[in-house]
Amino acid sequence: MGKTEVAKVLARWTGGELLRLQCYEGIDVAQAVYEWDYSRQLLHLRAAELAGTGADVAARAEDELFSERFLIRRPLLQAIADAVDDRPPPVLLIDEVDRADDEFEAFLLEILSDYAVTVPELGTFTAAVPPVVVLTSNRTRDVHDALKRRCLYHWVEHPDFEREVRIVLRRVPEVEEGLARQVAAAVRKMRGLGLYKPPGVAETIDWAHALAILGRTRLDESVVDRTLGTVLKYREDAERLRAGGLEDLLEAAGA
Hints:
mainly alpha
């Protein structure tokens, strides 16, 4: 959550449009840059056929097939083509770039080096103003050095206890402060247990939100056991916590 929030805050701060590209294994140009609206192209051809059968009509319809009216702009092309001098630059969030494969990362590097995209049928789109680009990674694999060299690197740590409490109170205003402090303390305890997937701030917020919906004002063993799935997302982690007993967790939370 923290990494993605950086881009959202930048967009609110600068007034630029937030464009998000969620990376995943197998992502390609059609999902990231552009594709043609084939359904509308077929309808256009059909309409041209109904309008007339002359050679000039057919030629004109064919020429129009690959005009901008049929171009679907995906986030990378939007960030480049929509950047103009009289507006704040868009904020392009390339989320979880480590999930994409090496070929897409190389393609991404080429685009971000020149802030230009070539569409063979239309020509080259070049950004009048470079977008603000935020790349995030969860380190499921190493990002190549060539891409790292073009980035300012920042490691997003878990916040300290008091800051996490303030985040919970800000994002879940209906939760009581005492419960927010217990939840934050319990999550900090979980992070030190060597779990397969330690909970992040997003899970802290989810847990506090669930407890507030249930009308709880403090943690106890019963409610922790029933709501553990909001904060731990792997069965092995939940079973490990339950097997060791929840007393230590409640003690750390001051419950």
